[in-house]
User: What shape does this take?
Amino acid sequence: MIKVLLADDHHVVRGALAALLGLEPDLTVVAEVERGDEVLPAARSTRPDVAVLDIDMPGLDGLAAAAALREALPDTATLMLTGHGKPGHLRRALTAGVSGFLLKTAPPDELAAGIRKVAAGERVLDPNLALTAWDLADNPLTPRETDVLRLAAEGAEAPEIAGRLHLSAGTVRNYLTAAVTKLNARSRTDAARIAREAGWL
Assistant: This one.
């Protein structure tokens, strides 16, 4: 039997997944959690073969939970399940060492097959997401532009960013202008959104 941990903050989705997986003769759900920060404690006590994690959860997002799980319990494979396949999420997932990445719209038999594959040490990736990631350009921002944009996204104004990064306010404004231009954004807020969705912030 392949032991599965389910993590999703939507009760209905989690319940439906548990019910569907319960119909599979070789899969058993050993834990269900609704918060990202509950994943590791539940995994430590139940030792699942595969953790199926939603990305957007309170406490800790699924990608951070996957990274913590990989460090603490490297024998537990992780399969990310998400409602929206943002390229940045996929990039972060690959960096976190997840074994699989599927959309919630995948048919139940595809999910069950994905769990079996990652349990066997294989990788699973939704083909549409693979194409999206492939098409995504490399980060055009310099490390300094990224630092400035990240602080601006947190709500810091140019003088505060200048103080924190030991730059002049004019230099900060130049970096922000460069970031907005490179990302073809309408504003620094739009630039931050674009960069975050691409996984660059």
Strands lie at 2-7, 27-33, 50-54, 77-82, 100-103, 124-125. Residues 169-182 form the longest helix (14 residues).
